[in-house]
Amino acid sequence: MNVTALIVAAGSGSRMGGETPKQYRMLAGKAVLAHAVDALSAHPRIDAVRVVIGAGQEAEARAALGTRAVGDPIIGGATRSQSVARGLAAVATRHVLVHDAARPFCPPAVIDRLIAALDDHAAAVPVLAVPDTVARSDGVFLTLPESRDGLVRVQTPQAFLTADLVDILGRHSSADGAPTDEASVLRAAGLPVATVEGDPLLDKLTVPADWARAQAMLEARMISRTGLGFDVHGFKGPGPVMLGGIEIAHDKGLAGHSDADVLLHAITDALLGAAALGDIGEHFPPSDERWKGASSDRFLAHAADLVRGAGGIIDHVDATVICEAPKVGPHRAAMRARIAAILALADGQVSVKATTTEKLGFTGRREGIACQAIATIRTPAP
Ligand code: CTP
Ligand code: MG
């Protein structure tokens, strides 16, 4: 074992705001901290990943981390450098990469460069040039621009010889106020810190605009997928029928294990198909007593949860109800509104159409209702 990644997640995210600290909030179906852990765990040169969390953040951390192999979370301190110092006590490897949980995306090439730099240096950090004009502002007026020659933005992960970092933090962290990273502590102590090229993907999520940028970046990389659904239920016994989540007066009812809402079943299957998550029978087997007489909005809501839980976005669903009667037209608006409500979509993202089969076949003989559906979703790029 040579390299441990130490991810500090003990902050409160005050500049980001919101009820949950930013590192535990969901981004594309996964907590920010989990993105960071996965990015570092996936690198072949990283042997162990440990996470430092705030006192009282245990439940949020557990939910964010799931079954990821990071050992027990370490409880951090009131400042970032205290959190790092406490985390370092649990690091047993020769080298350590200290990383902010608030930087969810870490390209493997940056880790390659940092680890390569450790061959020749005791400390290395990723940096990016500053492309904008640089000046100071008192909040109202600007000074003359400063020269940006040689100015860089310093990111994490920051790579160190563990023993050196422990030694320096022990001697200098309190003396230097609240350093915002470990490289600053080393520099303040006069020690050299090598630089490697950073990556804009590593930019920290600090204020709400950063969150919007990360979301837009993830959405731009999403893949559009479609899924088909088809279902049939035969008429049996007296009405009404459940169709599109609403009750429609009809002389005959539909037979089925659940409430036999053929339209919601077809849309449920379309969503599961788009996400390649099996089919309705697999998730809600008719043999299972739990689903006997079940209201089908539960199936549809569950399919939507599965899509969104995997970081997906539901863009649109469209369906065609095939029957001679009941007539769908008078109920179309109510069905669209109900389906949109179950899926947490706008009505404009839901389409319901209907057709007869010109009295041909089983639907033409009024023996049952068939329904086709199609769903369009976006999912995170693999
Ligand atoms: N951090 C930490 N312990 C602290 C303070 C910060 O482990 N006492 C971590 C944060 O969780 C974050 C990283 O250090 O992953 C970078 O800090 P920052 O972006 O400042 O996060 P917060 O301190 O949480 O945010 P803010 O300063 O806006 O409150
Ligand atoms: Mg902070």
Summarize the structure.
The chain has 12 helices and 17 strands.
The CATH topology label of the largest domain is Spore Coat Polysaccharide Biosynthesis Protein SpsA, Chain A
Briefly note the structural class of the backbone: alpha/beta
Broad shape: elongated
Q: How are helices and strands ordered from N to C? A: EEEHEHEHEHEEEHHEHEEEEHHHEHEHE
Q: Determine the oligomeric state from the structure.
A: single chain
Name some characteristics of this structure.
alpha/beta, 12 helices, 5-stranded mixed beta sheet, binds cytidine-5'-triphosphate, 8-stranded mixed beta sheet, 60s Ribosomal Protein L30, Chain: A
Could you characterize what this model shows?
With 382 residues, the protein is an alpha/beta fold. The protein folds into 2 domains: 3-220, Alpha-Beta Complex (Spore Coat Polysaccharide Biosynthesis Protein SpsA, Chain A); 222-380, 2-Layer Sandwich (60s Ribosomal Protein L30, Chain: A), CATH 3.30.1330.50. It contains 12 helices and 17 strands. The model has no long low-confidence stretch (mean pLDDT 94). Residues 8-16, 21, 23, 52, 76-80, 83, 100-102, 204, 206 line the site of cytidine-5'-triphosphate.
Topology overview:
Elements: E1 3-9, E2 26-27, E3 30-31, H1 32-41, E4 48-53, H2 58-65, E5 74-75, H3 80-88, E6 95-100, H4 108-117, E7 123-129, E8 152-154, E9 158-161, H5 162-172, H6 182-188, E10 194-197, H7 208-220, E11 223-238, E12 241-243, E13 246-248, E14 252-254, H8 262-274, H9 280-283, H10 297-309, E15 313-322, H11 332-343, E16 350-355, H12 361-364, E17 368-379
Parallel strand pairs: 1-4, 1-6, 4-5, 7-10, 15-16
Antiparallel strand pairs: 2-3, 6-9, 7-8, 7-9, 11-14, 11-17, 12-13, 15-17
Cytidine-5'-triphosphate (CTP) is lined by residues 8-16, 21, 23, 52, 76-80, 83, 100-102, 204, 206.
